[in-house]
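Ticket 4471: requesting a sanity check on a complex prediction with zinc ion. Repro inputs:
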Amino acid sequence: MKITYIAHSGFLVELAHTLFLFDYYQGEIPALPPEKPLYVFASHRHPDHFNPEIFGLARDRENSFFVLSHDIWRSRVPEELRERTAHLKAGTRWQRDGVEADTLRSTDEGVAFLVRAEGKAFYHAGDLNDWRWDGESENWNRGMAEKFRRYIEPLREVDLDAAFVPLDPRQEEHYALGLDYFLTLADYRDPKRGAKKIFPMHCWDEYGIIDRWLSEHPDFPGRERIVKINVRGESFTL
Ligand SMILES: [Zn+2]
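Returned structure tokens:
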């Protein structure tokens, strides 16, 4: 399994027989082996998660499919691709040719994805995160934390090969809330439990936020599963 970080929340996951592209909005997409079916996911319509350029990937390949959150306008999908496109609400399961995607509700727009294929499982959060902001009221922030914990609950005790989880420097001292909670959803002292690798994302190209998390969590269970991303285009073989 090979994972390429493209930009922001955009990743390419390459399995032996299948390709998955998540939340592409800009950056360079690596060469896509034409024989492998390509599943293009977009968690919601915000411009840092969805770029209609993704539909151009279908130009020369019939084996491409689009799995979009329900909030992405159907009119944005080129007509000839509509039968290869699914618009998923939260809490639904979509299946095609051995690929299974479950959706979780997001605390922002759209959905998060739990995907299973070829015996692998991975999670892409989209904007499902504990978005605590200093500018919001305590009431709002408390509601946010409560919703986040409820919406992410389907991941409890789920073993994953990879997880893509927001770590956003704009939240300042609250940047780690979502990731810290994610790491309590399984017993991370047991190397067989939880996510094997966790890719921080939504970092706005400020990868020092990952170093900050590592230095502020010296003994946190699961710490060694955090992947240090340094630059757009970086690849990781798991
Ligand atoms: Zn976003």
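Notes from triage: The pocket of zinc ion is lined by residues 46, 48-49, 127, 202 (CB under 6 Å). Leaving this open until the requester confirms.
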